[in-house]
Specification:
alpha/beta, Aspartate Aminotransferase, domain 2, globular
Length: 437
């Protein structure tokens, strides 16, 4: 009996792809444009995942495609350690121009967010001469050994992979939804926990860096109290600790600003990490930071064969141009307002939506078994996402307990398509409530 394309792809996956690679939506996408995807059977889907926050400028943006084609006609690769290439230099210049860091800046181009994390810690250790790093509960910083060590979620990211990198100290991250405190007090107490750690966990003069996501990604799109990051930055500044903002997911217009750091007055991190939507689907990432910090490691100690590849750098240059010209940060704010308004209205009618939160178009729905106890409801989350796929919507989960649905649609999505996707979520939530009782 002849197999369908989907059945054939499923067999290929089972036979040749390690089972350790998870797939939330078991379809094969063969074409994409804007905020729409088409699978191997020709079915159309609305994309609320964006390749996990990678496609902020939209799938197959014609200007990005043209830029990559033009670069491909001229130069694929040299390796920055062998010769310079112009896209690398131009992208470093543009990243330094837009990064919300005070003073002279420099940049390092790499391939992935995890590489950016690794190199940021190396830079901080070289600059300070100290070994320790402070990270946070709920954090996600990649799947490399250091990235896993900094990451908070155990299953599936860390199970069976230890021992992990030493000299990492994990602090609580303030989550307004799961606290009875007012936000100002919550932020102050969370910072006091970090300060107390210098007496109970590690001496401040042994801490090279503190790394934090301005909005937690995999942790569930948790937005901290508004006073938290500025207070945290002051703690670092007073003690000579390098303050690292991981904007791999929150950067490039997602939160309503080009960087989430811009929601604060003069937050002024020492290093900012970017990746994901920087390359519109091509692998590229960067560490951007204060020049004296970036120049601390010795010559030849940073880099890699493919870092700043000309094709990916050309795509990134066009992404920055498109985002600024088309005012995608403002578009993200509009998407966020419409989404939050719709979802909070749905929340009022729902028994399983515990919280709707986010910043800009970085929106999360947290599902719980009981809105009073706030017990996570992973089973409901899995069923809602399964139903969304059935009804033509691609979603992606998040959270330490896998009970959060995150909205990461391309920022070029039309209001009409956005509304259609939100209606699918509403239908899936209602049906899930009925089925689970």
């Amino acid at each position: 009996m002849m197999k369908t394309k989907r059945e054939a792809n499923a067999l290929l996956r089972e036979r040749y792809v390690t089972k350790s690679v998870s797939v939330q939506n078991p379809i094969a996408v063969v074409r994409a444009e804007g905020a729409k995807l088409w699978d191997e059977e020709g079915r159309e889907y609305i994309d609320f995942a964006g390749g996990i926050g990678v496609m902020n400028v939209g799938h197959s943006h014609p200007e990005v495609i043209a830029a990559v084609k033009e670069q491909a006609d001229k130069l694929f690769h040299t390796c920055i350690h062998v010769t310079l290439n112009e896209p690398y230099l131009q992208l470093a210049e543009q990243l330094c121009r837009i990064a919300p860091i005070v003073g002279e800046k420099k940049a390092l181009l790499v391939n992935t967010g995890a590489e950016a994390v690794e190199n940021a810690v190396k830079i901080a250790r070289s600059f300070t001469g100290r070994p320790a790093v402070i990270a946070f509960e709920g954090a996600f910083h990649g799947r490399t050994m250091l990235g896993m060590s900094l990451t908070s979620k155990v299953t599936p990211y860390k199970t069976g992979f230890g021992p992990f990198v030493p000299e990492i100290y994990r602090m609580p991250f303030p989550n307004p939804y799961r606290s009875e405190l007012d936000e100002e007090t919550l932020g102050e107490q969370a910072v006091e926990t970090v300060v107390r750690a210098f007496e109970t966990y590690v001496e401040a003069n042994q801490v090279a860096a503190l790394i934090v996501e301005p909005v937690q990604g995999e942790g569930g799109f948790v937005v901290p109290p508004t006073n938290y990051l500025p207070l945290l930055r002051n703690v670092c500044r007073e003690r000579g600790i390098v303050f690292i903002l991981d904007e791999v997911q929150s950067g490039f217009a997602r939160t309503g600003k080009m960087f989430a750091a811009e929601h604060y007055d003069a937050l002024d991190p020492d290093l900012i990490l970017v990746a994901k939507s920087l390359g519109a689907g091509l692998p590229i990432a960067a560490v951007v930071g204060k020049a004296d910090v970036m120049d601390a490691p010795q010559v030849g100690s940073l880099g890699g064969t493919y870092g700043g590849n000309p094709l990916a750098a050309a795509a990134a240059l066009k992404v920055i141009e498109v985002m600024e010209r088309e005012q995608l940060p403002a578009r993200a704010e509009h998407i966020g307002q419409k989404s939050v308004s719709f979802l909070r209205e749905l929340q009022q009618k729902s028994t399983i939506i515990g919280d709707v939160r986010g910043q800009g178009a970085m929106i999360a729905i947290e599902l719980v078994k009981d809105r009073a106890t706030k017990e996570p409801h992973a089973e409901a989350t899995a069923l809602v996402t399964k139903k969304c796929l059935e009804y033509g919507l691609i979603t992606v989960k998040a959270g330490v307990y896998s009970n959060i649905i995150r909205l990461l649609s391309p920022l070029v999505i039309s209001d009409e398509t956005l509304q259609q996707g939100l209606q699918v979520i509403a239908r899936a939530v209602r049906e899930t409530e009925e089925e689970l009782g």
